[in-house]
Amino acid sequence: MSRVFSEELVNSVAKEMKVADLANATIGDVLLVASRLEELTGIPFIRMDQGSPGLPANKIGIEAEKKALDRGVGSQYPAAAGVAELKQAASRFVKAFIDIDISPRSCLPTTGSVAASFGAFIACTQRIPGKNKVLFIDPGFPIQKSQLRILGIEWELFDIHDFRGEPLRAKLESFLSKGDIAAVVYSNPNNPAWICLEESELKIIGELATQYDVIVLEDQAYFCMDFRHAFGRPYQPPFVPTVARYTDNYILMLSASKIFSYAGQRIALACVSDKLFDTQYPALAARYEDSGVFGPTFIASIMYMITSGCTATTQYAMAEMLEKSISGEINFVEDVREYERRARRMKQIFTDHGFSIVYDKDVTQQVGDGFFFTLGYPGLTGGELLRELMMYGVSSISLSTTGSEQQGVRACTSRMREELYPVLEERMKAFQADHPLK
Fold first, then answer.
1. Is the pTM of this model over 0.85?
2. Yes or no: is domain 7-43+337-434 CATH 1.10.10.10?
3. Which of 37, 59, 77, 389 could share a disulfide with 394, CB 3.0–4.6 Å?
């Protein structure tokens, strides 16, 4: 056997870290075990578990924060709705790169997209009595289901793998027609599969959202990172695909974490359609004893209770990064294209040694290369593959924890380094030798 770590050691560390079942471990559990194994042995892991940015934070944002502190903004509470400069920049940014009109008042800064979805789940499931469930188009971000557990909100889900293109309509309608779905959630590009919903699919989602009065929460954490297309040129097509072209029932979540590598400062945007922002809901008015108008209630009666507003300096940082992107002084797509190069090289190593890409196609083309990809290996379930890879010094998460019905693991490219490619090659060569294909 050519394992880097013995099964006994991996099991012992998992027990020490209080991980009951490594095959179904969360991202945090895998991170703990991998870090402890590195600490005990000094042997580096190929870290494909946590989707944390692996590039330097944007310097323009850093300098803007410093200047904001020097101006004295740290002495005052930021407005709940956000600073004017960021709201205006957000509106222009959405127009420049998505070609959608959203007014500044409807663009709300949040402490990361996690906070945006947490607050949106509350607002969406309380606005209409009887509409109290969330539907996940999976695979998806596991933390969002954890949020619903905290809130006591029920959810439904389905794996989109077998429902791409027109079959998506009937599948979605089978849930929405019941009348209890308040919101539909997905990420595009997708975490963990890196599939991208195409315009035809977004049109289906938008039409059904309008028909059944459902709000679409579109997580664009990996904004413009479908590198197969020339996205990211301000005010020039192609523009980023979005459900916002096909319905007024939407909240777009745009985060600085990946596109500006600004994860540590926790800043994102919840961009609410103007029509939804201004819609009055009696149930919200009764619960919060306010106007019941969606936007103001979302901001003042829900989001402010969660975060008390975003740190002022990070708002000025994001405003500056958005403005510089609009003017062309920042090319944020090229700044993060390194993820595409990493994915291509990593996928090649894995497929050369018997692995397959689980989610390998969109409707009309092969899935692109970017921040994430998915891996399967013949004869192994996702949980089994996760465990086996750990013994070869490679950490990942099982697709089963993301709502997927497919067997495999999610791989993240963000922490890959140049000196680790030959290490990965050597370890996967050993993996294949120890797991011969029939």
1. yes
2. no
3. 389
